[in-house]
Amino acid sequence: HYLPQWNLCLLSEIDVAEAYAPVRDFAAVLAVLVTVLLVAALGIGLAQGSALTRPLRSLAKASLALGRGNLNVVIPDAPGDEVGELCTAFQEMVARLKGLIGDLQAEIAERGRAEAALQGYREHLEDLVRARTDDLTQTYKELQSFAYIVSHDLRSPLVSIEGFVGELQFSLDDLGREVDALGAEGERAAKLDDLLRRDIPE
What we know:
Layout: E1 2-3, E2 8-9, H1 16-19, H2 21-67, H3 82-181, H4 185-197
Antiparallel strand pairs: 1-2
């Protein structure tokens, strides 16, 4: 080091290790600082990664539970970013699915009631058909019985009428032969008068 007022130059000898000691100290501080910064960056990265993956894992678990039929799936509060929007959309889908399943269950119940009522109507209709068939069978039997009685009751007078017609035919045949046998008109008139006055046999 030059000292101009004394016109002197001061020289000193320093060991290399001593000369580079501040650099080594600065390097050590810098290494500690870089290490602290890396650890901090790693911690912040893990925290951010966890904050990002936690809702995604919750969403994945909820999807699996929903796939197994659990409609009471609830996703914890999600952040206000895209993952949060995805979780909100999932919750809305679950709510709509619950509504659709409720509507479907109501429709199934209504169909069950309608089928039960239809089965009741069918059984009632079968009972009515059976009763009507029994009535018609009874009426048919009564008509057969009536027809038998009527035919039997009409047979006797018909037999009598048939016999009378036979006798009348026989008498008319005799009358026709006698009229043909009459030769003269006078004789015919007299015989005809005589025949008409006679009793017709039964």
